[in-house]
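Fold tokens
===========
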Amino acid sequence: MHMLRALSLASGLLLGAGSLGFHTQAAAQVTVPGVPRSQTIILENPEGTIKNPGWFNIWTLNAGGQYTGLHQLALDTLWYIDPEQGLEGAWENSLAADRPIYNQDFTEMTVKLRPGIYWSDGVEFTADDVVYTVETQIKNPGMRWSALLALNVESVTAPDRHTVHFKLKKPNSRFHALFTVRFNAIWIMPKHVFEKAGDPMKFDFNPPVSLGAYKLHSFDPNGKWYIWQKRDDWQRTTLGRYGEPGPKFAAYVDPGPPDKRVIAQLNHDLDVVHDIAPEGMFTLTKQSESLKTWFKNFPFAHPDPTLPSVIFNMQNPSFASRDVRWALALLIDIKAVSMAAYRGAATLSPIAVPPTGTHPQDYHVPMREWLASFELDTGKRKIRPYDPTIGPQIADMLRPSLKEQIPTDPAEIDRAFGYGWWKPDPQAATELLEKAGFTKRGNSWYMPDGKPFTIKVMVEGETRPILTRAGTMIVQQWRQFGIDAKTDVAPGTTMLDRRGAGDFDVLISWSVETYGGHPDLAFFLDSWHSQFVAEPGKTQSPRNWQRWANPELDKIIEDIRRIDFDDPKSIELGRQYVKLMVREMPIIPLMAYNVFTAMDEHYWTGYPTAENPYGNPVPNWGNSRTMMVRLKPTGK
């Protein structure tokens, strides 16, 4: 039996296939306590090396890790929504025994809890844990979810051990979303542990008491790896009702830079790669005989329910006119952007909803007829800019080199390459800019006030190379048209700070994040209400980075607030939002954020795929826990 003996992080040399290892230039050896390789699934943690590895108090920010397996395997909350189909449907009652129960005006919410669930130290989970979680965070403003809870909750009580009752400060038909995992949510705290720990802001929660099916086995004091072990009483967790998790151990590791991840998986030392560049995935498809990907063939990647876009700073006068915004959209050759960013492996979206999960059937396909008939007045003529054939065109471009990997079925082409986009039309862009009062002198465009039309497009550089490639290509296309455009590189936290401050002209990022597995759009859309738009110079709260305020949008949002989460009217209102976004173009939607998650079937089989979309394979998502109950050992 192979043992996972050592994880060395350094330049190049890999240990044998029975152990996971890399070497750094310093040749520092990091020893992982022995666990059987055949019983261990090894997953990449995209956080890398954790600065404060012993900090497990996820409710307080203190440089501890979140994606170390902590929020995937050890924690739990009331509900989950899978971005795909889920194990028994996208909606999952987890600690809750049923869906949220609201009163008629959505000012109260009652939760019935699932009995028979236990913490890993043998204490039963009860309503007291939920009440403690809410009250503790409200009392301590520095905790992660304290502001959201203080804004919404008037009181929270436990009428009995398995019932929680919330009274809200104002009607909110989506209050339950705070306790519903899309990527994460408000995780429930163990009252019996924290109430004895003193200041909850200073308590490291080490070792963590688990509510999930796994408990902490060990972790590297240098923050390189974390190992979790299946609980003996896994049946007394919410995951247990789906069956016994396959892996006895799960290791979340920092496998180093992209090239090392590829080599590690080729040597069967890394079962799940979180994300790599398209080139890395192409290498794996050619060299690995045990590779599993979301799509069996090109584009391979899993489309996350986020929507990378060209985000205009709507408080910048340069973009006040929708004619200008539409002109900039019609100057984009999306085929070139797709090739530059994803080497063609992009799932495009002309509308402001990601083309993933249930959204194609709820929005993209039903909206195609409307998109085809949509007309844009350039001031000199009316045009119909939508082109439904963009996806097939990209497929045809790639087929000579990738041959049978490119689908031929029209429905499969749609799933892989998206649902059309806008035709490049420089002449229409010229007419729209002239309609807005812009003029072209020589090879350069000038604004109505006579100043050169300049645009800085903020990208994250090597922090997010795929979106940087997209932004760079768009800048090039705008420059070729005579606009003084240039990239503005703001890596990592610099981008986050500037995005929140509104310190940008145009940003390549996303302000649209959906559930994926549910048609409701309120997860992101409610934050776009004008009541949350910050004044220039003030910090913008998530997620309306474009700082767009629109009365018609406000009405759509307010109508959504007044209906139940599962009301079919939410789809109708969502389509109204889609039409408004097309007309106004405050962002230019580009494509889904395709994540090149690579899964190795040497030791484990049963990963989620597009053919078997029971869960999300991207290993840092909280709902990726569902993978554990479907994984089966190969016996190697």
